[in-house]
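SEQUENCE-TO-STRUCTURE ENTRY
===========================
What this section holds: a protein sequence and its matching fold, both as plain text.
Tokens: labelled as protein backbone structure tokens, with as many entries as the chain has residues.
Question of interest: how does this chain fold, as expressed in backbone structure tokens?
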Amino acid sequence: MRMKIAVTALFLLSAVAARAQAVSIYATSSSSHFSNVQTGLALTSSGAQEQYANFWTSGIGGGLTFNFLPMGPVKLGFDFRGSTRPGTAGSDTALAGLKVAFNPPVIHLKPYIQASGGYVATRTLNLSTNPTNPSQTVGGTFTNQYAAWEILGGIDVPVAPILDLRLLEIGGGSGTNILGTTGTPNISLFTFNSGIVLHF
């Protein structure tokens, strides 16, 4: 009887431990830099001219990782993530991709790298020329939407069996405007994140 109880307890503990490695949820502060963002059409003496801007946004982010293929100290997972910074200037992201994480047996760090693709939106001041008063801009918000990709890498530091500190995550990528006029150049994006990770 005791043997059955011990085996059952061991099975349940193993199941809980395995599940703890299967799903991770994270919340981060999220800072992003966007380059070459379209901000409107200006009328000049030489004709119409597109306006572009570079800017930073700082907001919140988060995501969910399913670790579906552990191989010793290496884990392969599928990651869903998003971030938002409301207002003008602002941005929203929604990306998904593959993540490879490492848990070296000696070093007390968990580095990872991932490739993600999806959607990015930016909001900037509308710098288009007011057609009724060419000396003024239209004002308000100019919105762009992009099909985007990003390569990210980071380092998590374990602080408890189910909790990691996301010490640093950086990423870079590009986006193609899906609402812009033909010939609109791609944007460049750079992200810098940190936060916490919970394992379930």
